[in-house]
Inverse folding.
């Protein structure tokens, strides 16, 4: 069952063009929504679909839309295409290979929430996807699917493409809004949530690229049909990014519910050189790791959650038995230290401390006390070290850096201890 | 064209009119300013501030937050090597070492000729085609150390006026994150992302 990637698979040579899009029922769902349905009915269908956000948090899309205050106008729609979570490259494919599907999703969402101004925020390191969207937007304006009086309905919608400039944190929705306002991409304290006070202080819905790309199918086939796909709580198909030590890394659109082990074998072609899985990251660099004996966890939002991690951005990174887990954790912690915006002390200082201590262990200069030090610093960022993490920071970036640290300390402590030279003083 | 002339260009007008609040034009205007010298001069920051009605300090605060706005000159070709987890698992360190060696400069620096700058960057969303490299943000996936060396030699020898991801992928790349589909002839003319609206695109090479 393919929804998101059906067109690009069937028509790999031109799935990104308007011509192909129109030849494969393109813009019919938007037409149906705008000319035959009320905004409320569109919203009802999306609610009924149980579509949950594909950016990371997994919040039900229709419920999010429902948080908009009834009276305040204008409302804005912002598309989060700032895909930057290590391991994640699915939105890049959707932007590059089927940009009109996203634009049609934007039209449907905007109509449903009574919004006439939308922004597509794409990370600066994605110029090719951005160019495809830029051209697709021009085509859509030219054809009358965007602009004034769409489908002769009186509904107007402007969509502006906005390019980021290298900051992971702008994937956090309030940081993205600050960035879109021309400011530093620093997250805002919530509440108020963007639905109430977002872009320019106005009610704003921020939805992920993949989330919106599902809407044409949902409107064409009905919310109930979408809800019927896959297990309860993880409706629909989802595009997973598989990378690391597998034979066939790539993006794979699946119905959720199969286990990680099945997914790695069936889609990833198994682990390279038939090695064992030492550990895997189930949902992007922010997620706590699973070990090789958790391959039977089903890939659903709720199962991964109850197993102590998250499906997050849908990025699965596989590490085989030869992996130096300290090096892997150091890579992820370095990422978060580099991307910390610096607003909150526990994150700004803590991520750098974690990076420094892991680097010291990697250099063979670790001290026995460093394991406790790692836990102590982690506890200052995410008190109690539980999951989901308790926060001492405005956004979850700091706690994300704790995930790899606690993962290796709880699962591979012996290995880390073996890297600490004997006879080194603890102080 | 000097920055002062920009106020009258359709491109600047279009950018300024795209947003309900012109402050939002800061980021695209900073990119336009970079296309002038390849990096942001103090003068460019002042002029962007003037266009959107902010102080230089406000624009500077934004500009310094984002890694792609360079405050110092970079080479004609900015070679960015991803070092995040998926690339790291598949040998990114060796790719970076090969590029540093071939370019003759460590990450963070530019060669004396001003041709090649090397930097290590965090995840560029090419994890399925790891290890990944970008030249002026045009992507090449599945790069091994030998191909990385050849890439740097090619940039120096061929000195292409436009760098294009599809062309470089065919010459120096390997496994891709996904089927890219048909090749695209549009590429980048300098060390900033190539987008029509920014006037930073070129055709062919």
């Amino acid at each position: 069952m393919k929804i998101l990637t059906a067109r690009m698979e069937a028509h790999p040579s031109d799935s990104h063009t308007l011509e192909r899009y129109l030849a494969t029922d393109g813009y019919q769902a938007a037409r149906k929504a705008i000319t035959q349905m009320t905004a409320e009915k569109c919203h009802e269908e999306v609610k009924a679909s149980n579509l949950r956000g594909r950016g990371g948090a997994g919040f039900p899309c229709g419920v999010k839309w429902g948080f908009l205050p009834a009276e305040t106008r204008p409302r804005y729609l912002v598309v989060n295409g700032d895909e930057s979570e290590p391991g994640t490259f699915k939105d890049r494919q959707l932007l590059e290979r089927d940009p009109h599907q996203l634009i049609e999703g934007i039209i449907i969402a905007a109509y449903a929430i009574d919004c006439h101004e939308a922004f597509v925020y794409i990370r600066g390191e994605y110029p090719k996807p951005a160019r495809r969207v830029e051209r697709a937007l021009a085509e859509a304006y030219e054809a009358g699917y965007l602009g004034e009086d769409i489908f002769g309905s009186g509904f107007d919608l402007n969509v502006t493409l906005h390019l980021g400039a290298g900051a992971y944190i702008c994937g956090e929705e309030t940081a993205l809004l600050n960035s879109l306002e021309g400011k530093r991409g620093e997250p805002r304290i919530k509440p108020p949530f963007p639905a109430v006070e977002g872009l320019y202080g106005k009610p704003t819905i921020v939805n992920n690229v993949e989330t919106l790309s599902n809407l044409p199918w949902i409107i064409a086939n009905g919310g109930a049909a979408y809800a019927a796909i896959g297990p309860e709580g993880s409706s629909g198909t989802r595009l997973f990014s598989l990378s690391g030590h597998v034979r066939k890394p790539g993006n794979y659109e699946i119905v959720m519910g199969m286990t990680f082990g099945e997914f790695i074998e069936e889609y990833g072609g198994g682990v390279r050189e038939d090695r064992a899985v030492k550990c895997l990251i189930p949902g992007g660099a922010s997620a706590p790791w699973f070990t090789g004996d958790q391959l039977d966890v089903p890939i659903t939002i709720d199962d991964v959650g109850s197993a102590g991690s998250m499906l997050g951005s849908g990025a699965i990174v596989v590490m085989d038995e030869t992996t130096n887990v300290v090096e892997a954790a150091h890579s992820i912690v370095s990422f978060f230290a580099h991307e910390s915006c610096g607003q909150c002390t526990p994150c700004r200082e803590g991520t750098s401390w974690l990076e420094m201590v892991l680097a010291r262990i990697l250099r063979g200069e670790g001290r026995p006390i460093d394991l406790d030090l790692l836990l102590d610093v982690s506890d200052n960022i995410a008190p109690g070290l539980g999951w989901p993490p308790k926060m001492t920071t405005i956004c979850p970036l700091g706690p994300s850096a704790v995930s790899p640290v606690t993962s290796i300390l709880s699962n591979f402590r012996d290995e880390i201890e073996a890297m600490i030279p004997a006879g080194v003083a603890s102080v | 064209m000097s920055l002062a002339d920009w106020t009258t260009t359709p491109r600047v007008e279009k950018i300024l009119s795209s947003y309900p609040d012109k402050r939002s034009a800061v980021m695209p205007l900073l990119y336009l300013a970079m296309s002038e010298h390849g990096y942001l001069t103090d003068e460019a920051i002042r002029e962007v501030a003037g266009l959107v009605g902010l102080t230089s300090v406000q624009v500077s605060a934004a500009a310094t937050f984002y890694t792609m706005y360079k405050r110092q000159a970079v080479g004609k070709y900015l070679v960015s090597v991803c070092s995040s987890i998926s690339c790291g698992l598949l040998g990114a360190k060796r790719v970076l070492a090969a590029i540093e060696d071939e370019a003759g400069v460590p990450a963070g620096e530019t060669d004396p000729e001003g041709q090649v700058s090397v930097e290590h960057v965090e995840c560029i969303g090419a994890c399925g085609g790891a290890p990944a490299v970008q030249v002026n943000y045009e992507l090449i996936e599945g790069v091994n150390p030998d191909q990385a060396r050849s890439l740097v030699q090619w940039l120096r020898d061929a000195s292409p006026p436009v760098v294009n991801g599809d062309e470089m992928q065919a010459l120096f790349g390997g496994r891709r994150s996904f089927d890219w589909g048909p090749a695209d002839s549009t590429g980048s003319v300098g060390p900033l992302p190539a987008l029509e609206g920014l006037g930073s695109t070129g055709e062919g090479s």
Remarks:
- The first strand of chain A starts at residue 76 and ends at 81.
- The mean pLDDT of chain A is 97.
